[in-house]
Design goal:
- The protein is α+β, with helices and mostly antiparallel strands and about 190 residues long.
- It has helices spanning about 50-60, 70-75, 85-105, 135-150, 155-165, 180-190, and strands at about 5-10, 15-20, 30, 35-40, 45, 65-70, 115-120, 120-125.
C-alpha cells in the first residue's frame, strides 16, 4: 500500500528511489542503516530520544503494515516489565514523532497523520515503496547475487555498490536500543 497521493518514483543522485506525490513534493524516506533518520530530500533528521528512535525504526521496518500496540510495547520495553502507562507512553511517542515531522519537514503541506497512521489496534507508517533504506539494501544485494549467478560481474558490482552507498554508519540502527524485531533486522543487514 502506498501513499494516497503517490504518482511515481524517480531515482535520486545517490541511487535511492524517491517517491513523488501529485504536487511534486518528495515523500519522506526513513534511514536505519546507521542512525535512525527521516530524510526529506537530502536533509536528514530524526528523533533523539531512544524510545522514539525505536518506535520509528519498528514502524519503518514494517512500512505499510499495522504494528499492534502490544508488538510496539514488546519492542520498546524488551526484557523489562512495561510500565502501566505503556499505552499512553506509545501514544505520546507517536504524537511527538508527528510533531517532529511537521516542524522539520520542508514540505509545508505534509500532514503527519497521513504518514504515521492510527489504525485499529496500532499504528502504520505509510511511505509508499522504496522508502526504507534497509529494504533498498536487501533489494540491491539480491540483484547483485542474481547477477553473479548469471555470470554478470559488472552488473553484480554495480548492484552491490548501490547497496553499500545507502549506508550512513558502521552498524544498522546505530545507537538504538534493540528489541526482538530490531535485533533481527540488525543481524540480517550486518
Amino acid at each position: 500500500m502506498g501513499h494516497p497521493e503517490l504518482n511515481r518514483s524517480v531515482r535520486s543522485e545517490n541511487g535511492r528511489d524517491r517517491a513523488i506525490n501529485s504536487s511534486g513534493g518528495v515523500v519522506l524516506d526513513i534511514g536505519v542503516l546507521g542512525d535512525v533518520q527521516i530524510m526529506d530530500g537530502e536533509l536528514g533528521w530524526g528523533p533523539t530520544a531512544p524510545k522514539q528512535q525505536q518506535l520509528l525504526a519498528t514502524l519503518a521496518l514494517a512500512v505499510g503494515h499495522v504494528v499492534t500496540m502490544s508488538s510496539l510495547i514488546d519492542e520498546l520495553w524488551f526484557g523489562v516489565v512495561p510500565p502501566r502507562s505503556a499505552v499512553t507512553a506509545v501514544q505520546t511517542y507517536v504524537m511527538n514523532l508527528r510533531a517532529l515531522m511537521t516542524s522539520r519537514s520542508s514540505h509545508g503541506r505534509l500532514d503527519p497523520k497521513d504518514v504515521l497512521i492510527t489504525s485499529r489496534g496500532g499504528y502504520r507508517l505509510d511511505l509508499g515503496t522504496g522508502t526504507v533504506d534497509a529494504d533498498l539494501f536487501e533489494e540491491a544485494v539480491d540483484e547483485g547475487c542474481q547477477s553473479l549467478s548469471e555470470g554478470d560481474n559488472t552488473e553484480a558490482a554495480q548492484a552491490f555498490q548501490r547497496g553499500l552507498a545507502l549506508w550512513r554508519g558502521a552498524a544498522p540502527l546505530d545507537g538504538v536500543p534493540l528489541g526482538p524485531r530490531l535485533s533481527l533486522t540488525a543481524a540480517r543487514t550486518s
